[in-house]
Write a structure and sequence with these properties.
- The complex is a heterodimer of chains A (439) and B (382).
- Chain A is α/β, with parallel strands linked by helices and 439 residues long.
- Chain A contains 16 helices and eight strands.
- Chain A has a four-stranded parallel β-sheet with strand order 2-1-3-4, with helices on both faces.
- In chain A, α1 runs antiparallel to α10, α4 packs across α5 and α7 crosses α12.
- Chain B contains 15 helices and eight strands.
- In chain B, α5 packs parallel to α6, α7 packs across α12 and α8 runs parallel beside α10.
- Chain B is an alpha/beta fold and 382 residues long.
- In chain B, β5, α11 and β6 form a beta-alpha-beta unit.
- The chains are: A alpha/beta (439), B alpha/beta (382).
- Chains A and B meet through α6, β4, α7, α13 and α14 of A and α4, α6, β4, α7 and α14 of B.
- One iron/sulfur cluster (SF4) binds next to α5, α6 and α14 of chain B.
Chain lengths: 439, 382
């Protein structure tokens, strides 16, 4: 086996991403000292950062902090501190890392993290969010707003769903006015929504570049680099500028026919978050096979834009609500996730699907055995199922994981040689995975 | 009375849903709609002329052969046994399954069931988690209207104000009877054991409400006359078994170790409202309003106006409990989370507590028996 190639994309994007994220941490540090800008903690998934932008509040994303800690191999200490408080071995390790950090005063960059001025639980998708934010509020004494977003249980959100979220967004505006001491600036809100629309356009174009062969970037491992600015800066001109640079660079690369690998050997779709404590190791296991991710469900937690959804400054409240309700993977129902993966396999032309079962995240993992059954039997795409965790380093079995990955690629290679890249799909039409919807 | 308890036990031990089959035979053309724990608006199902059935896993009576591969590790038993019941044909008498927003595992289960059992009507109700917002009642009423239309489309009777009001009355009566049973047990725990109360309430998962009301009434007439002397037992509250249900032997074990269970959250959906649902207003709005304002606290319902740990503290005070036993289903994420803040609160109050984890299928209770006995002894001889 050849030595692992250096596959991580490093250009201006990488540099700029670092600067932006550092600047974000500086704003958080500043807020920790002075209470200004107002720090509002919220979840990545289906976030309404545009509304915060209207108040010049700074978003505090505990998930981003948790993953930064894990990737820097600093997550075990806070996890253990939280377990001492009574959290179970199987509770979402993101939560434990975050709460443990609060208890121990650890931050990913060494700067200070503010106590949120508002704990905004945007309940989009995962039920764990609710517990997490309630606990944060209870432990810090910060005020909590529970923004209840109906789970997408029909194909499309109903008018009642949209109305419900919009009404709560207006309640949130009143709360933000009170906490920030500023009047709601509707035009500023619209401008933020317009920035988001542009960012989404650019990001979507980037993701669609991965349809090419070779793909100019890895839509799982490299996408994560882009996701930081996507969530923190989406509603700002800096965000737009960042994604302009990113698209330009990656497009140039694509036009020159350059890929992640000189010779892309396998194209993959990834399902589930990565094992952050072993991010590099895990990536290398695929790099050795010159296997490139062309799409991933994880990169759509914050928003699912590659299929055309956009914010709309003409209807800012409604479009924020629609984004929360329907345009992110975690608030969509499980069968819609099956369809999303199947679409990637077809349209992004993938050879296989890697399913990463994350022990402490049921939202992603509960039922992945059934998903695998669907993908292999009904869609007819080879799948590999790996178990570990996204934050807890104790659940990564390195040698065993590597063996399974190697075996998977050996089988794929064999299939390619014999001209059978996919196992035969089941005869007959695909079952209708959609829900029944009433007119 | 013993015969009633035996009947109830037989009803809930019957994995083939004999009572549901019997009801369907007596009501040709009518449907049986099951709901996954914890809460479901059974009144709407009743108003459509259908039978609401509470699903609660398979207990210790079914080997898991298929469901493990579908759900993987770190997932609670009830999710797997429900899937297994479906894959082994046991859910055949049911025409529909209702799920709601209790946890991530149950939510995904809903859609896995939908894919694997396409002949069934599978729906997911979003129960609001922000009851403090005035918008939540309107939203929920519309969600309920959606359910009513679905049931009508399945051949149900038109869900009218009258039929809903009649159903609300029947279930108000049912819940009032369950409340009386709980009050009786709390006041005179020597007249009805936790296990007996459990059987009586849980049988309601499978029986038509009219029949269940009759059973409860009969029990409430007979139980206070029972002989028995109040022992010097520990008064405990059981918390955490709101969804997956513990084995019956485990409930008995706690009592045998010297505890009076003076309150618990078993079969919580049967006893969901603190008082009657209004019958003098638009019924879907009344049901939705009751959910927002009259629900019991639970790990799967969120109301930060009155946090759950405060509600547990109130319950302990109100029942004059000496201790709390957390009886938590293995891998139940909502219960695991809540344990942390419940524990903190109880420690502030100086109320002792014990944490036990169970699975539907448990073969040996020896270790648990030891733990409960040690716990009890440590308190009695303190
Ligand atoms: S359970 Fe999963 S989706 Fe939910 S907060 Fe944890 S990692 Fe995120
Ligand atoms: S027992 Fe807990 S984890 Fe399992 S389905 Fe019920 S609420 Fe969810």
């Amino acid at each position: 086996m050849s030595p692992t190639p250096n596959t991580e994309y490093r250009g201006n994007i990488h540099q700029r991403q670092k600067e932006l994220m550092l600047k974000w941490y500086e704003r958080l540090d500043e807020s920790a000292g002075s209470g200004r800008p107002l720090p509002v903690s919220l979840m990545i998934s289906g976030n309404c950062v545009e509304l915060l932008e209207a108040f010049e509040a700074v978003p505090l994303y505990p998930e981003v902090n948790a993953l930064q800690l894990a990737i820097r191999h600093q997550s075990l200490e806070p996890i253990l501190a939280a377990e001492e408080l009574g959290y179970a071995a199987d509770n979402c390790a993101y939560v434990k890392a975050d709460i443990g950090c609060y208890l121990k005063g650890i931050t990913p960059t060494g700067g200070r993290l503010p106590v949120p001025g508002l704990v905004l639980c945007n309940f989009v998708g995962c039920n764990t969010y609710i517990k997490w934010f309630e606990h944060t509020a209870a432990l810090t004494g910060a005020p909590l707003f529970m923004l209840d977003v109906p789970f997408l249980r029909t194909d499309e959100p109903s008018p009642a769903d949209v109305d419900y979220v919009v009404r709560q967004l207006h309640e949130l505006v009143a709360i933000l006015e009170r906490l920030s001491g500023r009047k709601f600036d509707y035009e500023r809100f619209q401008r933020a929504v317009e920035c988001s629309r542009q960012v989404e356009e650019l990001w979507s174009a980037i993701k669609n570049l991965a349809r090419r062969s070779p793909s100019p970037f890895d839509a799982y491992f490299d996408a994560i680099t882009l996701m930081g600015p996507l969530y923190v800066y989406r509603g700002t001109p800096e965000g737009v500028e960042f994604f302009e640079i990113a698209l330009r660079e990656l497009k140039e690369k694509a036009e020159q026919g350059l890929g992640v690998y000189e010779q892309e050997r396998f194209r993959l779709v990834f399902e589930g978050p990565p094992p952050y404590p072993y991010f590099r190791t895990f990536r290398d296991m695929f790099a050795q096979w010159k296997a490139c991710a062309v799409a991933s469900t994880y990169s759509t937690v914050g928003g699912l834009w590659e299929f055309g959804a956009r914010h709309d400054p003409a209807k800012p409240f409604e479009s924020v609500a629609l984004h929360m309700l329907a345009q992110n993977v975690t608030n969509r129902n499980y069968l819609q996730r099956y369809d999303q993966i199947a679409r990637y396999v077809d349209e992004w032309d993938a050879d296989g699907v890697i399913i990463h079962f994350v022990k402490s995240c049921r939202l992603f993992s509960a039922g992945q055995g059934d998903m695998r059954e669907y993908l292999t039997r009904t869609i007819g795409v080879p799948t590999l199922y790996i178990e570990s965790d996204l934050e807890d380093p104790r659940y990564f079995a390195e040698a065993q994981t590597k063996n399974r990955i190697d075996a998977f690629f050996e089988a794929l290679e064999h299939a390619k040689l014999t001209g059978r890249t996919r196992p035969a799909a089941q005869e007959g039409p695909r079952p209708d995975a959609r829900l029944r919807v009433l007119p | 009375m013993e015969r009633t308890f035996d009947r109830c036990e037989a009803v809930l031990a019957d994995l083939d849903l004999g009572e549901v089959r019997r009801w369907k035979q007596e009501h040709p053309g009518a449907r049986a709609i099951a709901y996954f724990p914890v809460y479901a608006p059974v009144e709407i199902i009743h108003a459509a002329g259908f039978l609401p059935v509470g699903l609660a896993g398979a207990g210790d009576r079914l080997d898991i052969q298929h469901a493990d591969a579908r759900f993987g590790s770190f997932i609670c038993s009830i999710v797997k046994t429900t899937m297994e019941l479906g894959m082994t044909g046991h859910l055949e008498p049911l025409d529909g399954l209702l799920f709601s927003s209790i946890c991530d595992s149950a939510r995904n289960l809903a859609f896995v069931m939908k894919r694997n059992f396409p002949q069934m009507y599978v729906d997911f109700l979003h129960l609001p988690q922000n009851p403090g917002s005035p918008a939540s009642v309107d939203f929920l009423a519309q969600e309920y209207a959606r359910l009513a239309r679905e049931l009508e489309q399945m051949g149900g009777a038109p869900v009218t104000s009258e039929s809903l009001q009649a159903a609300i009355r029947l279930y108000n009566q049912n819940r009032a009877l369950v409340r009386r049973l709980y009050a009786l047990r709390s006041a005179s725990p020597h007249r009805v054991t936790a296990r007996e109360a459990y059987l009586l309430v849980r049988a309601g998962y499978f029986l038509p409400v009219e029949e269940h009301n009759a059973i409860l009434e009969q029990a409430l007439a007979a139980l206070p006359k029972r002989k028995g002397k109040l022992r010097d037992s520990l008064r405990i509250v059981i918390e955490g078994a709101f969804c997956e249900q513990p084995p019956l032997d485990l409930i008995r074990l706690v009592e045998d170790a010297g505890c009076y269970v003076v309150d618990d959250d078993f079969v919580l959906g049967r006893n969901w409202f603190l008082d009657d649902v209004a019958t003098d207003s638009e019924p879907l709005l009344a049901l939705a309003g009751a959910y927002a304002e009259q629900s019991r606290y639970s790990s799967v319902r969120h109301d930060f106006r009155h946090p759950r740990w405060e509600a547990l503290a109130d319950k302990v005070r109100h029942t004059r409990a000496d201790a709390v036993i957390f009886l938590i289903a293995k891998f139940c994420e909502p219960a695991y989370f809540d344990y942390v803040l419940y524990k903190k609160k109880l420690e502030e109050m100086g109320i002792p507590h014990l944490l036990l984890e169970f699975e539907e299928k448990m073969f040996t209770f020896e270790r648990m028996r030891m733990e409960v006995e040690t716990f009890v002894e440590s308190l009695v001889f303190d």
